[in-house]
Specification:
Elements lengths: L5 E7 L6 H7 L5 E5 L6 H7 L3 E4 L6 H9 L6 E5 L3 E3 L1 H13 L5 E7 L5 E2 L20 E2 L7 E5 H7 L11 H11 L5 E10 L9 H22 L4 H17 L3 H18 L12 H5 L1 E3 L1
Parallel strand pairs: 1-2, 1-4, 2-3, 6-10
Antiparallel strand pairs: 3-11, 4-9, 5-10, 6-7, 6-9, 8-10
Helix pairs in contact: 7-9, 8-9
Amino acid sequence: MIDVSITRLVVSYNSAAILPWQARQCCEMPVLVVDNASSDGSADLAASLGARVLRLPANIGYGRAIMSGLAQVDTDFALVLNPDAAIDAASLGALADAATRYPECDLFVPALIGEDGTGFYRVESSLEKRQRHRRPPEGEACVPIISGAAMLVRVRAFREFGGFDPAIFLYFEEDELCFRYRAARRPIIYVPSATVQHLRDRSSSGDDATGLVKDVSFGWSLAYVMRRHGVGRPWRTFFGLVAKLPLYLLAGRRRRLRRQLARIRGFLAGARGRPAPFMPVDGLHEARATAHG
């Protein structure tokens, strides 16, 4: 029996192909889908599947969409899930039990299991030195980094802390969040008895235009988090990105070459302190977003 109130919170962006799978695989609980102005009918589909839908007039990015959703949640906890992730009742109960036993913590993460049964665990941020010990904890433990694919948040405390950085449009949101949690000495608890199936890279369908947004955003967020938190080696990272260009050119990998150029473009914008590309005007979503039951 689950003794706390939990809402499943999902951000969709052209996620119509995967939302029915998630609805079938997840255990029953209230659901809020925040739709980032999808063009494939994701919002209407989510509503037909029984979710309450917050329809945003523009794609405001992943982190901002999560925070917009949390402002609408009326339960004590929210289970933030990617559209391509699912949880069963036993695992949800394990997360809820941990939340009850650790009232000082407002962020809990489960073990992630791939479609082939392989576990996925982040040991460190990609902006940090690689750790030699790669195994996940065998029991509940405080961890320094998470995957944003699945996490249980204590809504009020998470929002009061600030949640996801609104400057970031896409990528490295959870890394930036974890760096702030560490600086504030706030615990993040890993609960391996709770497992979430994560299909990975199936949350959105996209075309070349979507790919461009992702690649430019990846480069921008990489530089932004480095600059904000003083982690990594920005110039070494930049030259590493540039060094791959002749390799892709000589190999005839033109698509990969275009993607790398987009990442470099984003990285330079982030390093220069420019706002995230593709981010809409502040306040637009707050003025026009509507929620439907």
